[in-house]
Design a protein that fits this description.
By secondary structure, the protein is mainly α. The protein has a single domain (2-214, 221-304), classed as Up-down Bundle (Na+/H+ antiporter like fold), CATH 1.20.1530. It is 80% helix and 0% strand. The chain has 13 helices and no strands. The protein is globular.
Length: 309
């Protein structure tokens, strides 16, 4: 447990520093947008390429790993839809608020996941985390767009062709494909070293950007929904992943990485999607912020549980 806390504490300290830098305006808001952009389109993809290009994929239980993650996402999605049909529709502004809680419960923050997994489990863990990105990003984007198109308040019809194009051109997905291709073809040392140097700069900047995106002032307006949005993601999702891992027989580092993917906060990009497609953007912002804060307690707990199983 102490080892886990020692590995995770610096991550949340960097996030806190990012928040303070934003609040004190030492780094201007326009700069944070540029930092997020370069992390998403360059640094983070290079980290994934670096990891996958020389990973020992023969030792990874890809099918079982994929089954656990996909069924966990679909299971949580189905449960939330059932809850909405039975209970949620009675609340005012039920549709947009539900869509934001849905995104909060199902999506995951890839930056935080890899930042946690890397120090604890090395390249083997990061390889699995990269595969989790390749599995979850397309599925979660499609599901989120469908839910927002049904429950959001926007009159804009979803452009499914546009969504498919965004998924196919997502730099993280492209990085996974490129990394797997280089793993098959082989990568020269000079090219690998260049990729390694670029990718190494990504995690610190990405975590600072996570902190800069936190907004603490809006929580009082959505106490009950905020609580639901935090607990379904940080407790409900990892519990489902643990149950699926037991049913499938997934174990070892693969099981632990799957549990971490289920236990990290939701993706910060969920706020942008909520704002553009008629979700409750203020609630979504609060869910993203407080999941990061609460995860400082729940994430080490679930890593500890995963290692005991």
């Amino acid at each position: 447990m102490t080892t886990t806390l020692n590995a995770i504490a610096p991550i949340f300290l960097i996030i806190a520093i990012g928040y303070l830098l934003f609040r004190t305006r030492i780094v201007e808001e326009s700069v944070w947008s540029a930092i997020e952009h370069i992390c998403f389109y360059l640094l983070f993809p290079f980290l994934i390429i670096r990891t996958l290009s020389r990973a020992n994929l023969g030792s990874v239980p890809v099918l079982d790993f994929m089954t656990v993650l996909v069924v966990a996402i679909l299971g949580m999605s189905t449960l939330l839809i059932l809850i909405q049909a039975i209970v949620w529709k009675r609340f005012p502004q039920s549709g947009p608020s539900f869509s934001s809680v849905f995104q909060g419960a199902t999506r995951f923050h890839g930056f935080v996941a890899i930042a946690v997994i890397g120090p604890l489990y090395g390249d083997d863990g990061v390889t699995l985390a990269a595969l989790a990105l390749a599995i979850m990003i397309p599925l979660l984007n499609v599901i989120s767009v469908v839910v927002l198109s049904i429950y959001g308040s926007s009159d804009t019809q979803p452009d499914f062709v546009g969504v498919a194009k965004k998924i196919l051109t997502n730099p993280l997905i492209i990085a996974c494909v490129a990394g797997l291709l280089l793993n098959w073809l082989g990568v020269p040392d000079i090219l690998f070293d260049a990729i390694d140097i670029i990718g190494a700069g990504g995690l610190g900047l990405a975590l600072l950007a996570v902190g800069a995106g936190m907004k603490l002032g809006q929580a009082a307006q959505h106490k009950m929904l905020l609580t639901i949005g935090v607990l379904t993601r940080l407790i409900g999702m990892p519990v489902i992943v643990i149950a699926m891992s037991w049913l499938v027989g997934l174990d070892g580092i693969a099981r632990t990485v799957a549990i971490i993917a289920g236990a990290v906060p939701t993706a910060a990009s969920a706020y942008v999607m909520a704002r553009k497609m008629g979700g409750n953007a203020e609630l979504m912002s609060s869910i993203v912020t407080f999941q990061v804060i609460v995860a400082f307690v729940t994430l080490p707990l679930f890593i500890y549980i995963a290692e005991l199983l």
